[in-house]
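ugh ok fine here u go
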Amino acid sequence: MNDAAPEPPELFTWEFATDPYPAYAWLREHAPVHRTRLPSGVEAWLVTRYGDARQALADQRLSKNPAHHDEPAHAKGKTGIPGERKAELMTHLLNIDPPDHTRLRRLVSKAFTPRRVAEFAPRVQELTGRLIDTIVAKQDGAAQGEADLIHEFAFPLPIYAICDMLGVPPEDQDDFRDWAGMMIRHGGGPRGGVARSVKKMRGYLAELIHRKREAPGDDLISGLIKASDHGEHLTENEAAAMAFILLFAGFETTVNLIGNGVYALLRHPEQRARLQASLAAGDSTLLETGVEELLRFDGPVELATWRFATEPLTLGGQDIGVGDPVLVVLAAADRDPDRFPGPDVLDLARRDNQHLGYGHGIHYCLGAPLARLEGQTALATLLTRLPDLQLAVDPSELRWRGGLIMRGLRTLPVRFTSQTS
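structure:
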């Protein structure tokens, strides 16, 4: 009788990127807190069970500050967003701990109150409708239309929305779209493309902050500047870093929420039909629970951003050393059968769905209300305006973007019957 444990799955290959969930199931069962070497060369702990994940996300001994990681030479600068150090954009919410985190989050959270997000809903609906109008018009009257839902819909919607919220003038928003596009295209490849975009964005933000200081408006950047001017001690670097991370983190998560969500619905026609029937009846209940289920089932953020142990600790039976990087695998935790019955089943009506798609604890995603609004609006409008939406390629032809933190499709080719309203 052979009692040897089976060989661990190979991680971070292209095959793994297509469907990481069997590998994560193996890790949950056999090595729930697993030390591995990442493609960048950095060694880190992967946390895959739901209970351990919630503990790690809320554990104050796990710092967000990269200064707590004694980086080896071969891993220098590979634990964050490429280029943010050189561009002096490190002082944002994903890289700091209390008390600085508490102070900055308090300032920025004013832009994401339920009231402010609700006020923004008509603008999100306008953007969504305009993008679908453009897709339909491009068909030039043809009965059958085709589009890439990532680049023509899921990508521009959150870019324009977050630019509006930040106060980026309309004439400059296409520049932001170009820089953000470079970040997505190079997310898992050469880091230089991302770093160049970060540098350009930093230069623009410095200029925009200066202009907003001279002529403030009713926007987030103006709000950050006003707080700085009223004794909150927000430096220009902090204001630029906050604007940068809200853009960087605020657009790609929503791109992936929409892209992954539409793809999941296309692969589960019975769930899609239920949602369309609910929308046709004017009932938004299934839309709201459905977006939460899509966040759990194949969410936009695969791994939570970096954490570093500030003292020795034990997690999932493993001893974590001082300075060790810890990565919580949200995608694995949200498929944990000990927390979610039938975790590999998509159930848009699922209740008790305390998924970790937007994190947990003090670093819970600040922009989650806006992302939910965008996701709900995008799905409802797509399924209503283009009710017979179908994949235009075999699923085996789809490719997922490389990278460590985010999970999203490179393209999502679809076909549909063109409708003008």
